[in-house]
């Protein structure tokens, strides 16, 4: 691999002491990189006790608090504000990076037109993976899913647990919008989707790259393997998609979703039915049904979000907080 000399800042955001051991593993994996980061920044999201504990545990890291609104977007922005790297990478506190993770991410930036690089996020099931859970919906548990590129390829947007940006992206396009994304355990998302689309609209001759060789392993606790979590996460994703479409336009905001809906998901249903009827695997029915169920709840969330935004069209976006209870 060609050498690539750069300063890389890695930002990890945390909000709860319940993931303390996970965070220790995450930091250990970052310290073991073949291309070490120039700095590791740990951002604590409005949790003073966790902040104090992290300062003691990690004297050689940059440990800061979220100075913006509570939530993942504000925490990431707080990390960006103190980062010194030419490249700013992000990984979740409940993930573990392969040793060559940063090496593969950095290599993608050899092309000056690349604004950001993301990689594969592999589910690390703490409990057994449910037989009904379709790989097409791995995004429900924060992972890359069936249908994404299998070789290094341009993509519309990166996924939050495994992504890196040139620092100029934030100086030219701004940071993550606090109106979108996860706050605590509320299962929303799409903040990185909106940022990538916004950056591409501002810098149309540039691109984002997905390299499946840049891998992290994302813990999936047992609580995220229930049908209830699956449907809640799908519905929340629909709400988030509605807001993204409002912010960046439906043409760009739903471009990848159209291909996913009309190509990836039908093939997944057929694959499940084939496993059931041809190979005698009853779990195929479950996966096919889950795909249909997930699409239904995501669509319902999107329509509910669009309706709510339409009702409040004269209010500023920042005042329109979509939630499972409101929609």
How would you characterize this protein structure?
By secondary structure, the protein is α/β, with parallel strands linked by helices. The protein has one domain (8-319): Spore Coat Polysaccharide Biosynthesis Protein SpsA, Chain A, CATH 3.90.550.10. It has helices at 20-31, 48-57, 72-82, 101-108, 167-173, 191-202, 227-248, 250-253, 255-277, 283-311; strands at residues 8-14, 39-44, 62-65, 87-91, 95-97, 114-125, 153-155, 162-166, 207-220. Strand 1 (8-14), helix 1 and strand 2 (39-44) form a beta-alpha-beta unit.
Write the topology of this structure:
Layout: E1 8-14, H1 20-31, E2 39-44, H2 48-57, E3 62-65, H3 72-82, E4 87-91, E5 95-97, H4 101-108, E6 114-125, E7 153-155, E8 162-166, H5 167-173, H6 191-202, E9 207-220, H7 227-248, H8 250-253, H9 255-277, H10 283-311
Parallel strand pairs: 1-2, 1-4, 2-3, 6-9
Antiparallel strand pairs: 4-8, 5-9, 6-8, 7-9
Helix pairs in contact: 6-7, 7-10, 9-10
